[in-house]
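#struct-queue
[09:14] JT: dropping the first one here, sequence first, then the structure tokens:
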Amino acid sequence: MADVKKDQERDELFRRIYKIATDLVHAGHVAEWDFKSYVLGTMFYRYISENFTAYINEGEHAAGNKDFDYAKMSDAGAEPAREGLVQEKGFFILPSELFCNVLARADKDDNLNETLERVFNHIESSADAENDFAGLFDDFDVNSKAIGETVAKRNKVLVELLNGVAQMPLFSTDGINPDLFGDAYEYLMGMYAANAGKKGGQYFTPADVSELLARLGTIGKTKINKVYDPACGSGSLLLKVEKVLGKDNIERGFYGQEIDLTTYNLCRINMFLHNIEFDKFSIVREDTLLSPQHWDDQPFELIVSNPPFSVPWEGDKNPLLINDPRFSPAGVLAPASKGDMAFIMHSLSWLASNGAAAIVCFPGIMYRGGAEQKIRKYLVDNNFVDAIIQLPSNLFLNVTISVDIMLLKKNKTDNAVLFVDASKEFVKVTKNNRLSDANIRRIVSAVAERKDEQHFAHLVPNDEVGSKQNNYNLSVSTYVEQEDTREKVDIVKLNAEIAEIVAREQKLREEIDRIIGEIEGQ
């Protein structure tokens, strides 16, 4: 019954969110994709307000102060607790600046835009520098003409925005489903990204692909030290690991790096909305390939990533990069026009000796020559490639081709690469393909067992991959024979059918000749 209730709550939540989000877009002139920052930012404001209030109230109630409500306190009365709460929660919100209290005054506040701007600044500045709340509301521009030509019109949209988010059923009435904020975030990101064309794809890895990566990277493990994504986007891959393993089984938390400012902020917001405490994640905004962070951290037992395909970088245009300890072992740099292999070498460098890295890859890097071939040679000869999995086509937003997953490990027990053709492992959902639970289980099971399965999986010794014939080609189609799905022809049966047709034709000719003879004889 609990699972049924959770599903019902989630369905109702998504229905309400869709209506609210689309209504709010129509209230202003801003494009749906750009409006995501307002909806998600307001959800985040509501979440941290309610989370902060609940934390304080629970402590007071446990101490015997049953009628205490932080939201009803005066700001002056709350101030003495600021320092301690910042240390415990990472930030501080005055009672008057809580979501519920700003909402209660919103429709009467002629300066609502200024009020929200002040509140957001206060929340960001309340945090310690190392707690990294800075810039979380940067994309929430309360003075943008996109949401209204005048202050009055902008404030009208902001009132509707606060009311809309307040109406979202983001808390379960009986505490059964604590994940509704996170579910709402993922639903909105998927909805906005799907409608944003090519622009939206970089922000969103489908949940089924995220789960597959998480499960591939944790085969045989129930606990890891920490998880890392060098191109973390909005954080969906990192957080899927939390769902697969459980938060308590990720001992030191979630780490990521992201170059895009909007996505970087969305990722940090996503962490909070999934109830990841500020001291359990480290998301940094920098260019991963040129300015990698987390150098001094203990290597990661799990890396999951969907880095940008064929992104340009300095690469071989900057010969000094060959001295970088991440790239130097291969003796060659990834091409400047295609940074895919640079992300792979970076991930390998950050990987613990007992770890696994599951990386979504553009298929071209598996067979192209030049520097990419030399990097493949390094990976295979040093026995780092555990498996290559070919995925079905049309899984990703605005990417119709079939892509691959490369699974890297440093502690392999055999000297071979498993190739898996999972191109037919999907179910059709609207215009896209999806991986079902059964599809994911079959792929993960094949990788775990490392056994040959006709037309699906083939374990290939490293020296065969590096042979003159294969020349370090890592394309799945090179090693897994395609099943011939053409209808097989029974030659004996076919000959019998032809003979029967010929006999009938001969009999028909004889009958025609007889009829013609009778006509001519008349």
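[09:21] JT: and here's the second one, same format:
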Amino acid sequence: MNSDPVCLIPGQKYLDHMLSLVWFKRDLRVVDHPALAVAAQRGRVLPVYIVEPDLWAQPDASARQWEFVAECLADLRRDLAALGQPLLIRTGEAVAVLARLQSVTGFSCIVSHEETGNGWTYARDRRVAAWARGQGIEWQELPQTGVVRRMPGRDGWAARRDGFMSLPPPAPPALETVAEGSGAIPSARSLKLADDRCAFRQKGGRDQGQRLLASFLEQRGQHYRTAMSSPTSAERACSRLSPYLAFGALSAREVSQATEAARPCWRGQPGWGPSLRSFEARIAWRDHFIQKLEDEPALEHRALHPAMEDLRPVPDPAHLAAWQRGETGLPFVDACMRYLHATGWLNFRMRAMLVSVASYHLWLDWRATGPFLARQFTDYEPGIHWSQMQMQSGTTGINTIRIYNPVKQGLDQDPSGSFIRRWLPELAPVPDGFLHEPWKWPAARDLLGGRYPEPIIDPAAAAREAREKVWARRRAAGFAGQAAAVARKHASRKEKPIQRSKPRPDSAQLALDL
């Protein structure tokens, strides 16, 4: 546990009842930070970030995520120092860290943002709340986005969310220096995180996020709506802001308001209008999905529809390992997985395809594949991730069953094969006409099973079998009634949450390419 002393500025009271501790979590910025602004209005502020080794030991955490966070912390420490009070970084269990800081500084209040995190952070927050009550310390939690805590249902949610997003964000407050000695930012190795080579990971920090936002709204976003689906074009056309939003280096509100402010600049220019409208819709959908986890924390572990709980009871370990390594023998699937290994990011349609192939063709339970993907995503956001894992694997009971054809996806999104050739160099000898289905190449016997694996399943046969299994559950007596209950609690009120015979091409399942 980190035990760096808190160096109080001479002349400060040992017990300062006007001192508020601001607990930074997934909100690593000073701009549009309601918790910091409210604490500053109360009096003196002690900004603290707690590095929690047990959090980073969870199965959804990885070194690539921590390294991104560490870079965000460096920017946050600089920005807080410029306001007048450096950030204190402490390592250890949250209650123990807070108790020690309280004994030294005498803070009377904790102010933080509401966090919709994983099950571990939910349990930790309950422990902190119990400790604070026992000490007579107020803990004030404030929203930092459109997610609404303790809503009885979804009726009226969109209006409340839009109202919050339209409010002017608070400016960074001037802070009085009350303590020195910020503490070290630990390395991934010191947190005992597994080696995680991510050669092309995005660099963290608010400065980098602001540069990406500017380049997206000024240049890259013009073809966002039409270029987001293919991994060959999405890397540039998408905003790439998702990790900065996930860890709060940027706020969703400032991104939304910056997007709205940019629209007049591009009025009449080809592509910009539809692209910016589409991007704004995706920022709203981001809150929509996080709201699901806020309303039902068990969503991370339990199928939304009870009939789907044991749909895929025993994952095949060989299939799981092949999918994780990018060695399924399905070239476009494997190329997407290897790209994700190397970058920590993947456009949303391809994320959906990876989950679909794992869930249907390989018949793997979402709880077996979800933690692995969470670790790969630098932009891992629990509310979006677990909602989407269930949606794409067909366990919500209210969404369209979308079984992606991995060969067709490759032909549609990588018709030239350039993406496959870049990430699967072992397929270099395969002619263009057979690249998406190398098992059909007459000379494939010299390649498959050696340098590149044979397909571990027959895509068409596996899809048919999966479809029959899923629809057998959906047709069962009582399924529709339980699905209606899920829809009442979680479905958007802007569209019918009923199974469609033909899914729309731009449905909610394809709406999160930030």
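[09:30] RK: nice, looked through the second one.
[09:31] RK: The radius of gyration is 24 Å.
[09:31] JT: good to know. The CA atoms of residues 145 and 252 lie 6 Å apart.
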